[in-house]
Every structure is written in C-alpha cells, then in structure tokens.
Amino acid sequence: MILGNAQLEWSDPETGERKQRPLAAQSLTLGAHDSNDLCLPFDDVSQFHAQIEYTANNEFVITDLNSTNGISVNDVRVQRGILETASTIRFGSCSLKFVVDKKEVSLKPKKTHQFMDLVSTNAKMKKAFALVEAVSGTDAAVCIHGETGTGKELLSRAVHEFSQRFRGPFVAINCAALAKDVVESELFGHEKGAFTGATAQRIGAFEAANGGTLFLDEIADLHLDIQAKLLRALENGEIRRLGSNQTIKVSVRIVSASNRNLKDEVAQQRFREDLYFRLHVVPIELPPLRDRMEDLEVLIPHLLKKINPEIQMDKRLTSVLKNYSFPGNVRELRNILQRACVELEMKAGGPGASKVLRPTHFHFVKGLNFVQYPSATEIDPAERKRIINLLLRHQFNQTKVAALLKIPPSTLHDKLKRLGLNRQNIQAAALSVIHAKRK
Predict the structure, then answer these.
(1) Rounded Cα–Cα distance for residues 236 and 253 (Å)
(2) Between 56 and 291, the higher pLDDT residue
(3) What is the pLDDT of residue 211?
(4) 99 by DSSP, 3-state: which?
(5) Left if phi > 0, otherwise alpha if psi is -120 to 50, otherwise beta: which for 231?
(6) Residue 346: per-residue pLDDT
(7) Backbone angle region of 403, left / alpha / beta, with phi > 0 → left and psi within -120 to 50 → alpha
(8) Under a CB-based contact definition with an 8 Å cutoff, are residues 116 and 158 in contact?
C-alpha cells in the first residue's frame, strides 16, 4: 500500500511563486476556508471545494464536495475521479499538479499467530495485523469494520501501541452507550454551570486523548448534529467545552469502529459523507468467528490461560464447539468458556481433582449440536472402512469426503486423528492389500 507518498504543486496566481504540499496523511481537504488541510484563498474556489483520499484499492481519488465551480482532472470535469501521477487538477482559475512517488509499503502477513492480545491463524485476520503495522508510522485515521465481539477495541489498542503516539493516552468511547444529551459533553467536556447538573468543570475525551489515540466505537450511532461537531473538531484540530467560548488545540489520532456498513449509512443519509471520508482513510475488516473456525484451535487455549491457567482442555472440545455458530463471536466464546470453567469447578470434587474441561461442561449452550464423540476403539469398523474407501476414491479430498458423509470437514479431521489415519498409512495399507492379492 502507499502511505502518503504524493504531493500537490501549484503557482500562486498573484505572485507566481511555486508552492508544494506533500500529502502527509491519507486524506486531504482543499478549499478557500482556512480550516482545510490545504487553504486556497481564491475567489472562484469554494469554502470546502474538494477532498483527496487514498483508498484501500491503492488509488488516490479526488471528490467534489458540492463546490460551485466544480473540478476537472486533465481537462475532464469530474464529480469523483482517480488521480494518476502528474494529473492536472483545476478549480476555476486555480491549477494544481498532482505527483505521486509510488514507493509502496508491502503488507507482510504475520508468521506467528499472536498479535498483541489478538490470536489468529486466519489469513484475513493476519492481513488486518499487517495493515496495523503498515500504518504505524502515520497518523492516518483507521476505521475498523466487524460484528460485535470480533475484537475491534483490541485491534484499536494495537493501532495505538504500534504508532508513534504509544507513549500518549488511549481513550475509548462507546458511542452507542451514550445518551444523545450527554454525547457532546463526553467528547468535548463542559464548564461548571454549562447545564443543569454540571457542578464542576469536566474535560472530554478529546482533551483526555491529547497526544494519543481516541477510539470511537460504534461511530454509526452518533446523532447527525454531533457528527457535524465531530467533523469540525477533526478539521480544525480544536474543540470547545460546553459553556465555554475558548477553543482548545488538541492533537489526537482517530480510530473508529462500526458493526454497520458506513457506506450504506451514508446512502440512507444517517451518516455524513464528509465525516465518512475523514474517518475512512484506512479501512480494516475483521471477519466473524464463524468464518474462521480454525481459530478455535488457538483461541480456546489462549482464553483458558487467561481464565484459569490450571485448567486443561479435552482434545475433543474444539470439534464440539466448531458445530456452534457463535453469533456473539470471540466475546461470546470467552463468556462460554468462563461459564464452563464454573461448571467444571462445581463438579471437580475438591482440591487435587482433575481439572480437564470436557464437552459435557457446555450443556448450557443453546443451539450447540452436542455430540458425544466415541473413542477410536468404539468407532464402527464399517464406518472406518467406508472413510478409507472414500478417501482413496476421491484422492484424499477431505472436503469432498466430508460432504459425502454429511458431516463438517472439522469432524472428519477429528475422526481421522482418533483413528490414527493419514494419507501415508492409508496408501501403505492399500498397497499391501494390492500386493497380497497379486500373490
């Protein structure tokens, strides 16, 4: 990905002086108003004329922010267009050259399955980890998408810890948990007497996060009025406490998160498009647990170690839990494990008793297809023979064989492990049978 390796070049219409402005971040607003990232104080430039952003598709895109005179790229009028290197942008009489130094930063997937307090062997999760590392040297706004319980706050903390602001504060605000009449105070603070009940001065999240990172969880739940005030704070780098006329300069890196599609929210006019562009500079997607069930192999031991390091795990446990969809994702998995550990302690039978977490300790989970997995010696010999024949017939394609047996691939994998079957010993057994018949 490209991390702001671009710049704008132009000549001042009045003095003829040649000027340059690098894109230090992945989003830039242009217009006559002095709160823009690049102020162009010319008569035919609108107050907020356009925005340039770097997208997840490795492209720089310019968007007309409903300006009066519009914009053109290489003499073609556009509402939204891709900027190639050496593109010429015109705003009325103002002409700018857009130049890109395509020095790309490669995303290197993590080799280990642990990233800060997150664990995963899933390719999409490892891409998310790589993105966090890739943007560590910038202050680009990060927007994390994912269902409730997928680990958005943990990833936001990783963004902070890997950034240059790691010595500063990390402040988290859950926008969905705040009533409309207190959101502004929570974000920007208030003075004593600003409203009924304001008995003392209070600093808000922006001030508390100054020099660090502000995490805005469930950003889509902010009311449109508050969205407008948040946008002004992001554009100006200034906030004003409720009941005060004094502005306060703040420097924060914004990480936002949502379990709803922000593009859809913009289309439904429930979320401001200009705020979307401000926040959605580096989007990161966290897949739900049901789409990465292989992670149970590392998640369960990781969470159990935090809950109670003395508790061991029955080898069959992962296979049983793979039959559950986890609508609450990793947060639900942690809660289920905590409850099961309580069940285990209740039935342990006193000090020194075996502390092995078994499938039977999860009887309380509604919707779990509870299966008592037999030992290898209890498996029907006919079933064993059928599995071996199907594997040989379908070139050891376990997905195909599992479908024919009408069981999940993970269940077939566990059956093979309990039976001690693998490609090598099955082929060896088949060859010995063939040789015996030839004799």
Answers:
(1) 13
(2) 291
(3) 94
(4) strand
(5) alpha
(6) 79
(7) alpha
(8) yes
